[in-house]
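User: Sequence recovery, please. Input:
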């Protein structure tokens, strides 16, 4: 009898072992341990957000040429012939190369035409001056200004052809510039002048909406507006700047005053009312040489633009000399940089929405532009 009991126990033990070997062993793991293991697996497979940064740099007016009344000596043309295409943006080339898009206002035409339109000032450069842009990583320009018409329709056509040949994007009235960054982000630029036809603002408003409809990741509106040598924008500029943001613009860049104007934060977007001049061949010795370059880093998470603003101004001078223009902007230092930042704070003060620290970093004033 004892032997039979022992045989039965051995058989039961063997069966139990066989059942254990045939399973995955999960029944031997406490339930709380199984839950922890599953949680770890789920954590490892959670979505990791894709963060993309896009840096845009914008400058003031670039007249890459000379006035029709200029003689050769000391002109923009003479500096080009003496120093080559890399001379003019040399001090900013590293900055332009490091960003995703450099945008200038091209306030001249590139043409060989002599058929100038009767007006006070006519500015033109040679078609090969597109090399000034391409050699310094300038990817786009706005043409909506009062000097694109200086040599009539021929000048406009020649300028477009030169930029097309150089693969430089341009915006003008109903022409929207689209530029795709190395990371695949699409930046749209619209541009128009309000100097002769204030109603041309409709090109900007329609362009912003069209760019949004086409799925652009960033939309920049370039406005040629205001009163020359006035450091403060008119009410009409402010109204249009706000309307462009309301229409969907992510950044508004203004020009034409040939001097700096303030900046405003409106509904989480920056409006630069005027960035003054940059490389400006239309004046051999401007009395106002202070300027600033604007740079903003836009952050996208999973393709969605974030609301934070990371931006700065780079204080600059449009010439390396005080008594003449060498058409080669320099980064301002010391007292000159301090003065430019101080002035920009004064010009921006009426908006009560932004200021700049001693390094030129843009600081937002909270709870402004929400109404």
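Assistant: Recovered sequence (371 residues):
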């Amino acid at each position: 009898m004892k032997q039979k009991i022992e045989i039965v126990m051995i058989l039961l033990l063997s069966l139990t072992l066989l059942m254990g070997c045939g399973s995955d062993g999960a029944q031997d793991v406490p339930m709380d341990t199984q839950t922890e293991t599953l949680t770890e697996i789920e954590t490892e497979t959670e979505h990791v957000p894709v963060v993309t940064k896009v840096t845009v740099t914008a400058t003031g007016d670039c007249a890459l040429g000379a006035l029709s009344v200029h003689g050769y000596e000391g002109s923009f043309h003479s500096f080009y012939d003496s120093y080559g295409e890399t001379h003019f943006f040399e001090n900013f080339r590293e900055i332009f190369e490091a960003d995703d898009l450099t945008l200038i206002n091209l306030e001249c035409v590139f043409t060989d035409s002599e058929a100038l339109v009767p007006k006070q000032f006519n500015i033109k450069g040679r078609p090969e001056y597109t090399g000034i842009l391409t050699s310094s990583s300038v990817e786009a320009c706005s043409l909506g200004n009062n000097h694109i018409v200086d040599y009539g329709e021929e000048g406009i056509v020649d300028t477009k052809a030169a930029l097309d040949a150089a693969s430089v994007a341009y915006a003008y009235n109903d022409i929207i510039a689209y530029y795709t960054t190395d990371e695949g982000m699409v930046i749209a630029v619209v541009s128009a002048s309000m100097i002769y036809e204030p109603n041309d603002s409709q090109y900007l408003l329609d362009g912003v909406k069209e760019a949004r409809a086409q799925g652009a990741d960033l939309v920049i509106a370039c406005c040629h507006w205001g009163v020359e040598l006035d450091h403060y924008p008119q009410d009409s500029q402010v109204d249009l700047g706000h309307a462009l943001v309301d229409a969907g613009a992510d950044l508004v860049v203004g020009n034409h005053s040939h001097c700096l104007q303030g900046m405003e934060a409106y509904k989480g977007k920056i409006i630069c009312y005027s960035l003054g001049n940059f490389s400006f061949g239309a004046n051999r010795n401007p009395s106002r040489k202070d300027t600033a370059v604007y740079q903003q880093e836009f952050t996208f998470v999973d393709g969605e633009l974030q609301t934070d603003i990371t931006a700065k101004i780079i204080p600059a001078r449009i010439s390396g000399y005080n008594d003449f223009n060498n058409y080669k902007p320099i980064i301002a230092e010391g007292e000159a940089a301090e003065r430019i930042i101080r002035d920009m704070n004064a010009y921006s003060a009426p908006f009560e929405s932004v200021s700049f620290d001693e390094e030129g970093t843009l600081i937002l004033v909270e709870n402004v532009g929400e109404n």
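Residues 2-21 form the longest helix (20 residues).
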